[in-house]
Design goal:
With 311 residues, this protein is α+β, with helices and mostly antiparallel strands. The chain contains eight helices and five strands, in the order αααααβαββααββ. Helices cover 65% and strands 13% of the residues. Strand 1, helix 6 and strand 2 form a beta-alpha-beta unit. The chain starts with a helix and ends with a strand.
Amino acid sequence: MERFISIVVCQLIILYVYKLTLGIFKKENKNDLSSREWILILSVLFISVVIAGFLTLTSTQNVPSNTRLVIVICIAGIVLINIVTVYLVIDLSKKNSVIKENEMLRMQQVYQSNYIENAKAQYEIIRKMRHDIKNNYIVIGSLIKSGNIDKATKYINDNIHNFTLFANVINTNNDVVNAVINYKSSIAQELEIEVSIITVLDFDGISDIDLCSLISNLFDNAIEACKKMNSNKHIDFSIKKDESVYYFSMKNTIGHSVLEGNPELNTTKKDKIIHGFGTKIINDIAKKYNGAFDYYEENGYFICSIILKNK
């Protein structure tokens, strides 16, 4: 009994050291294990205790001293395996964190490139409008002077889409938000996805990097889902603010339930190492700002809801 209690205490000490070590890494934003991973770790420790317990009971029977020595060595080996497992999991977690950080840096570079391309596109639209607006005014003025009011009205209606195209561009006080939303919206429109956007103007207390990652991932997931549909492709994105709290909501139409077959939203792409961070990044950002992240399905829509608290 004393030996069995010693084994249990030893395993609990290993678990405590493991949790303490992970806590240190977590404060440095280097580690964060899910509930499933904790269950697996506890299962390994529990199975080890059970095996060691059976070996201890066996050693109390009438067995040769040499056999008892082997049993003691086996128990020591089990404890050693657990210790090695602890360090192995920590090492793998750190490497996964490095992969995640590298992927986020790559995404930021892509978004910065998108920002530049979007800025160029907006400049080109403005340049064309300035080039054409004088001629349009001349034509409209001539039609009005000659009394052709109907033709002038028709001319305006035929060319109003040129102004509408520019008017629909999001223009907040944050250049990063403008660039990301405008770029992702243009991609969605090219894929014949209807996009509806409502947003606040200011984003005080939230870093540009986090805004870029959050909004980009939300749009990427929504666009990817809509691409699988043949019709009724719609994205509804909104950002609202209530005092010091920001509410992000992304809704996209779905043809069938996503959560029934994939409740944890694991990536379905082949390269899971590169493409499996979207939901994880969103959840990390929500935690960083003492907020919350939730997703659910309602009335034919998949909905992501994020709350961020202004620090």
